[in-house]
């Protein structure tokens, strides 16, 4: 942090807001590149103006100077003195890249050595103007001045006519709305005028006792603003209805709420026992009633904390348009990129993990999916390819879909490459289904790229994408038609913190099965179980469903000596399996805890939870459990 009178909190807010402003400016520039909409231009000018003012307030004069140069170009475009051109777009984006780098260095506590001279020269070249200077103007009003705010406004109006206001104290909004008390009005203005010209300009402002003007060095500009404790601003501030909170606080709150949920469950069990005990009398029922009230409060608290953790997927989607634009230019492809559902919300912890997989899928769509313009024309397609990113809710999940109208996945090429790399045997290649061929692209080291590029094609990617998605309890599917395009669908849990599940008992050990995967539960007679091709199946209302014993995942064989069985039918996508357990213990919410490294990777288990009696229960990963059972039965595993 710079050695100025700026608090740590102010510095943190500045860096956070700067990141958001740079991202917003980038999206607006990309919009202007396609359509020179006046409102978009105004919005972009406003954002850049805010960046300039904020940077000046914390003493980052190099940032402020660069933003001012961008602002001048944008103002010339707004006033119809310039037209948007590829050159202007590239220079503006390069300026944002420089601001990003400066922000990154500042956030890491590095000494910033800005390389902006060439960018400032490029901006001045666009405007065809020479360099400007920054002046500090101090205006003192007469002791009997009745309305200093009005006089200060007159000073601002005159100075705006000869240049750009970098900073003022009091700020424009304070002068307009708060009628502040001040002895001197301080303004920093960037202008081509001289000291004498500025002094002469302000002589006819009424009730002014003295005017002092001095030239500031660029690096010194706005230091006084910072030393004033952040007062004054070149922009009008908006009403604040939100506060910034460290994300660790939400994590801690979520952990505490989780403990409350666990404690609530245990107390509910104790209250239930007391309610059935005659010796407890009316106390047992009072405990039950009190716990029901407390349960509602804890539930409401849990919902509010969960909402506070939710973040719109726009937080990661907003950086993709620039990436697609740059990749398409580099690969000489024409691409229309569309996004839908940016306001779809998901848990922050999941959003952080999904960013890199999404980047890889989009890069693949550009590199492997979309053809070059000439090839598309020969195929009867438009020159411009289409890539679409969609986000939406489906039941208790968040769906992300990346699709393109490119060449699709050549199944024969995939088979050949898999054979070459030893991933697929000649025998298996003769019986493999199209769906199984598609799933080969998720095999470690698999690639169909003919040559390594700086975009993709290094043989490392989709397997890592699948692993990252699986790690957060998600699932990825691929659908492709040769010559028409490819679609990747990612299905993610809404939250990683709390799951509603069915508690079942197996050999004195409790397991939790997420209720979203439970189609139905039932107690069935042994006569309803059949054996087909040496495998157990459940005959349920005319349907034949594969049947497994929960212990089969740990090497146990199916118990044949029972008269009836407790069975849960699990459904995931288009796959079903019936699981036999010792007993059902009921539905409730469970707080998910990660399994430590000492236990290793337990097959079919995604985590653990603390139960009402204080013991530990294992949470079943339905997807990997079904996959494990299919492998044991000789059924090819799905992706």
What's the structural blueprint in terms of helices and strands?
Blueprint: H1 8-34, H2 38-57, H3 61-78, H4 86-107, H5 117-127, E1 133-141, H6 148-160, E2 163-169, H7 172-177, E3 184-191, H8 195-201, E4 208-216, H9 223-227, H10 247-275, H11 282-309, E5 310-312, H12 314-317, H13 320-330, E6 335-340, E7 345-347, H14 348-369, H15 373-378, E8 385-394, E9 397-404, H16 411-420, H17 426-429, H18 434-439, H19 462-471, E10 475-481, E11 485-493, E12 498-506, E13 509-514, E14 518-525, E15 529-532, E16 535-540, E17 543-549, E18 564-572, E19 575-581, E20 583-591, E21 605-610, E22 616-620, H20 622-632
Parallel strand pairs: 6-8, 13-22, 17-19
Antiparallel strand pairs: 1-3, 1-4, 2-3, 5-7, 8-9, 9-11, 10-11, 12-13, 12-20, 14-18, 15-16, 16-17, 18-19, 21-22
Helix pairs in contact: 1-2, 1-4, 2-3, 3-4, 3-5, 4-5, 10-11, 13-14, 14-19
Description:
- The protein is 42% helix and 24% strand.
- The protein has 20 helices and 22 strands.
- By secondary structure, it is α+β, with helices and mostly antiparallel strands.
- The longest helix is centred in the middle third of the chain and has 29 residues, at 247-275.
């Amino acid at each position: 942090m710079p050695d100025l009178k700026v608090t740590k909190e102010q510095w943190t807010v500045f860096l956070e807001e700067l990141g958001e402003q740079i991202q917003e400016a980038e999206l607006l520039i990309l919009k202007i590149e396609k359509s020179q909409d006046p409102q978009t231009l105004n919005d972009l000018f406003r954002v850049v103006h805010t960046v300039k003012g904020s940077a000046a307030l914390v003493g980052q004069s190099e940032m402020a100077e660069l933003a001012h140069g961008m602002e001048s170009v944008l103002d010339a475009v707004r006033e119809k003195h310039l037209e948007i051109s590829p050159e202007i777009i590239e220079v503006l984006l390069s300026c944002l890249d420089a601001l990003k780098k400066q922000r990154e260095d500042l956030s890491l506590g590095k000494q910033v050595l800005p390389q902006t001279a060439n960018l400032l020269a490029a901006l001045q070249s666009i405007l065809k103007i020479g360099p400007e200077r920054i002046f500090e103007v101090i205006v003192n009003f007469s002791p009997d001045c009745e309305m200093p705010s009005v006089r200060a406004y007159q000073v601002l109006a005159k100075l705006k006519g000869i240049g750009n206001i970098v900073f003022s104290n009091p700020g424009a909004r304070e002068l307009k709305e708060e009628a502040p008390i001040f002895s001197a009005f301080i303004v920093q203005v960037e202008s081509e005028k001289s000291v004498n010209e500025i002094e002469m300009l302000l002589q006819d402002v009424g009730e002014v006792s003295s005017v002092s003007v001095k030239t500031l060095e660029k690096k010194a500009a706005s230091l006084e603003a910072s030393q004033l404790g952040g007062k004054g601003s070149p922009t009008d501030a908006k009403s604040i209805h939100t506060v910034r909170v460290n994300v660790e606080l939400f994590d801690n709150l979520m952990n505490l709420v989780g403990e409350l949920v666990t404690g609530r469950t245990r107390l509910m069990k104790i209250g239930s026992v007391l309610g059935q005990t005659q010796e407890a009398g009316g106390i047992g029922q009072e405990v039950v009633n009190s716990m029901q009230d407390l349960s509602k409060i804890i539930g409401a608290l849990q919902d509010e904390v969960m909402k506070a953790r939710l973040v719109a997927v726009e937080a990661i989607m907003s950086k993709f348009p620039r990436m697609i634009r740059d990749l398409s230019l580099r690969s000489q492809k024409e691409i229309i990129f569309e996004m839908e559902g940016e306001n779809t919300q998901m848990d922050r912890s999941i959003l952080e993990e999904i960013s890199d997989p999404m980047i890889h899928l989009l890069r693949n769509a550009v590199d492997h999916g979309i053809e070059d313009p000439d090839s598309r024309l020969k195929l009867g397609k438009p020159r411009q390819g289409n890539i679409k990113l969609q986000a939406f809710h489906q039941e208790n999940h968040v769906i992300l879909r990346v699709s393109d109208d490119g060449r699709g996945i050549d199944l024969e090429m995939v088979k050949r490459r898999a054979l070459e790399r030893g991933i697929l045997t000649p025998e298996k290649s003769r019986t493999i289904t199209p769906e199984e061929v598609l799933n080969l692209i998720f095999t470690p080291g698999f690639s169909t790229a003919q040559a390594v590029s700086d975009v993709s094609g290094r043989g490392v990617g989709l397997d890592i994408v699948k692993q990252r998605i699986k790690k957060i309890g998600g699932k990825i599917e691929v659908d492709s038609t040769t010559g028409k395009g490819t679609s990747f669908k990612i299905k993610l849990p809404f939250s990683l913190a709390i799951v509603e599940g069915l508690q079942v008992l197996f050999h004195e050990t409790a397991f939790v099965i997420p209720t979203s995967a439970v189609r139905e539960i039932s107690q069935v007679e042994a006569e309803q179980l059949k054996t087909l091709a040496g495998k157990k199946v459940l005959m349920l209302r005319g349907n034949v469903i594969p049947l497994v014993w929960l212990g089969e995942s740990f090497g146990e064989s199916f118990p044949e000596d029972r008269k009836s069985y407790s069975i849960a039918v699990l459904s995931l996508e288009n796959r079903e399996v019936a699981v036999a357990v010792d007993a059902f213990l009921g539905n409730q919410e469970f707080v998910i805890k990660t399994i430590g490294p000492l236990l290793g990777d337990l097959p079919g288990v995604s985590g653990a939870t603390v139960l009402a009696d204080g013991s530990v229960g294992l949470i079943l990963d339905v997807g990997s459990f079904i996959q494990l059972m299919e492998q044991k039965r000789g059924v090819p595993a799905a992706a």
